[in-house]
Design a protein that fits this description.
Distance between the termini: 17 Å
Largest sheet: none
Shape: globular
Low-confidence stretches: 207-211
Structural class: mainly alpha
Strand content: under 5%
Number of strands: 0
Length: 295
């Protein structure tokens, strides 16, 4: 991360926790970070975007730590899974996120962009949990993975709160996680409540290098070829195959892709493929950002 950007993020995080998000003017961030207003707006369009950058930075730290914990270990190793879940709680504690979120609770959080960002992060975490439950407990958990993920997260958070309320904070979070996993290990006798398709837009892109996001987007569009053709929508078919051709190119025309992607998204509305729009947009946005950063 750029040094100046990191200075701003660290200063803003400290001030948001100390004074509250709403009560912290941008001028205070500038003074604490020792940067000019122009430098701030070179990286962030608003205070809200700065907060989102803080949360993204913390999320990347969690992803990194989880990856490190998994190196050289079996994906079905339950102990690794417990440590990976605990990593989120340890990192949140290190960054004092509880105090940060408390300041948000008392502030004007009507910003739709921030709400959507927080929801996205939460649902990505649920999706990660569901995938790891399948890794650890096997295919038998596939149908109920999202039910189990929600149950597990709910159990961890509520149990942690109760332990704090009764002053049992010395109990390690790992023990609470083992307890929560124990609740989902028994066989699921009911039909699944949360369907996997609900969470399609929240799957994280693995190994998010430029080539990986490009391949992921290309594979996603390729998988829809037959369904797009069956819709017999000439405009949709043209946009779809144009984007695929650009993705196959070593030097895609980013300007044309931007225009066509907007039209493609609109063409998907009110079709049986409408639920794929958000996931495609997420992949496309990441691909474009990485292309621009590397240009």
């Amino acid at each position: 991360m750029n040094k100046k950007k990191k200075q701003i993020i660290e200063a803003a995080q400290t001030l948001f926790i100390k004074k509250g998000f709403s009560a912290t003017p941008i001028q205070d961030i500038l003074e604490a970070a020792n940067v000019s207003k122009g430098t701030f707006y070179n990286y962030f369009s608003s205070k809200t975007e700065c907060l989102m950058a803080i949360l993204s930075f913390i999320k990347e730290e969690v992803i990194h730590d989880r990856h490190q914990l998994a190196l050289g270990k079996s994906s079905s190793d339950k102990e690794v899974f417990v440590k990976q879940i605990a990593a989120r709680f340890h990192i949140d504690k290190k960054h004092n996120l509880m105090a940060l979120f408390a300041s948000l609770a008392s502030s004007d959080t009507a910003h739709q962009e921030l709400k959507e960002f927080l929801n996205q992060q939460y649902l990505e975490e649920v999706t990660w949990m569901a995938e790891r439950i399948c890794d650890v407990f096997g295919a038998k958990k596939q149908k109920h993975a999202y039910d189990d993920a929600v149950t597990c997260f709910g159990t961890i958070h509520l149990t942690s709160k109760i332990l704090m309320d009764i002053n049992k904070t010395e109990i390690p979070i790992e023990e609470t996680i083992y307890f929560a996993l124990g609740q989902i290990e028994r066989a699921n006798l009911h039909p699944p409540f949360l369907q996997a398709d609900y969470f399609l837009p929240y799957h994280q892109i693995k190994d998010a290098g430029e080539q990986d996001s490009k391949i992921e987007l290309q594979q996603t569009l390729t998988a829809l070829n037959s369904k797009v053709d069956k819709l017999k929508n000439d405009k949709l078919t043209y946009y779809h195959h144009f984007l695929l051709e650009q993705l196959k190119s070593e030097n895609p025309n980013l300007f044309l892709m931007e225009s066509v992607m907007n039209s493609y998204q609109n063409a998907l509305l009110h079709t049986e493929l409408e639920d794929k729009r958000k996931y495609i947009q997420i992949l496309y946005t990441q691909f474009m950002e990485e292309k621009r950063e590397n240009s």
